[in-house]
Design goal:
Length: about 425
């Protein structure tokens, strides 16, 4: 009898728990209908933001010292949004554009583009040459036709580009080329350069057939590489800076295969240190204003899923110190172009997975042919007055960012180079 009573009690508790869960989910959970009041549509034409959502963003731009675009890499619509943002921010006195590249690799790309009036063609020629030599693109984030739009906008509006990341894995050959150029190209140095470059290219070739090949560990230990570095002028500031950044980049890459968390910490420290240098140099202006475009994991506030406090959190604290505003933008995608679908796109909000159900309230704000901006600042304010259950993924978005941008039907960038 006692057993029966315990069983009945247990069943009652389970039923009560299930009922409460269903009540939360069905009645008091944040919904797409509720979020709709905080969602605004806009359009982008000729790099101009228009519509209710566009006006909202433009007003926020005018009140911000820092704007962070937490992007999804290699998306065509993100490239177009970046171009429009660069144009709008230029009218607010923004002149610094911080990106997720190594400073020396980015410098080489910028020098290449100075020799052409057509950015798209210049990017094509640069990427084609380097990709044919090394079997992969030498720098991320500029290899698509759509990327040319924001590169051109940054040039047209006189932005200074600042790379604050480690040097990219496939940029090493062109950085060796730069070291050789800085050396004066003597015959004695050329022999060391040739051997070092040959060693790097051989490591890439080995990595193509075995992705676990320890490229960067081997570069750190290579006698060919160290002998090349040893014959270069240690008193030349640019030379020593490239060598220093190369070695630390190799250490971060090598560390990633042994201790990913330590590698993320090391990389995060690098980026924050470099950002500090950029900001300090920009402080010569009255109030330096910076646009920061990086992957969403780097720009979010708080402790990231990588387990570090990254650029987004650092900039947020800096804005608080300055009593200014950091505007934090992130992206979500509902529709994707798809030639096989009857309507030309597929809807990422269809289905009944847990992942989707937790995000549906935001996801369903997306439109096929219009941009949508979800005002998380207004949602935060409203949630303090209402008792609504919010799934963890949405809660993290709400408190890590200020706005969610949902593009119209999206696509990957179109390759802008020949292999």
């Amino acid at each position: 009898m006692r057993y029966f009573s315990l069983l009945a009690c247990s069943s009652f508790v389970c039923l009560l728990s299930l009922t409460l869960t269903q009540t939360l989910s069905a009645q008091d959970t944040i919904s797409a209908e509720w979020v709709h009041q905080f969602s605004h549509t806009f359009n982008i034409e000729q790099q101009e933001l228009s519509g209710e959502g566009g006006l909202l963003l433009l007003e926020e731009f005018s009140e911000s010292q820092f704007v962070l675009i937490g992007e999804t890499h290699d998306n065509a619509e993100v490239a177009f949004f970046t171009a429009a943002t660069l144009k709008a921010l230029a009218q607010q006195g923004f002149r610094h554009f911080v990106v997720e590249n190594g400073r020396h690799g980015l410098e080489i790309l910028q020098e290449e583009l100075k020799t052409t009036t057509d950015v798209e063609t210049g990017l094509h020629d640069f990427y084609t040459r380097e990709t044919k030599r090394i079997g992969s693109i030498p720098l991320p984030f500029y290899s698509g036709i759509e990327d040319a739009s924001f590169v051109e906008a940054s040039r047209e509006h006189n932005y200074q580009l600042h790379g604050i990341d480690q040097e990219y894995f496939y940029s090493f050959p062109m950085l060796f080329d730069r070291l050789f150029e800085l050396s004066g190209k003597s015959e004695a140095i050329e022999q060391h350069y040739d051997r070092a470059l040959e060693f790097v290219l051989a490591q890439y070739k080995a990595e193509l057939s075995n992705e676990d090949h320890p490229v960067c560990e081997n570069l750190l230990k290579s006698s060919e590489v160290s002998e090349f570095f040893d014959v270069l002028d240690p008193n030349d500031e640019r030379t020593s800076s490239i060598i220093q950044d190369l070695k630390r980049s190799w250490e971060i890459y090598a560390q990633n295969g042994v201790n990913r968390r330590a590698s993320f910490v090391n990389r995060g420290q690098w980026m924050k240190s470099r950002f500090s240098e950029v900001y300090e140099s920009a402080e010569e202006e009255d109030t330096p204003k910076l646009l920061i475009k990086m992957g969403n994991l780097h720009t979010m506030r708080g402790l990231t899923p990588l387990g570090i406090y990254d650029i987004g959190n650092m900039v947020h604290e800096l804005a608080q110190l300055n009593r200014s505003q950091d505007l934090n933008l992130s992206f979500m995608f509902r529709y994707y172009t798809d030639e096989e679908e009857e309507l030309g796109y597929f809807d990422n909000s269809e289905g009944n997975s847990r992942w989707l159900n937790e995000r549906r309230a935001f996801m369903e704000q997306g439109k096929v042919s219009e941009w949508t901006v979800i005002d998380l600042k207004a949602i935060r304010s409203s949630l303090t007055e209402q008792k609504l259950y919010v799934y963890k993924p949405l809660k993290e978005m709400i408190y890590r960012h200020d706005y969610i941008i949902i593009p119209p039907a999206s696509s990957d960038i179109t390759k802008n180079y020949s292999e």
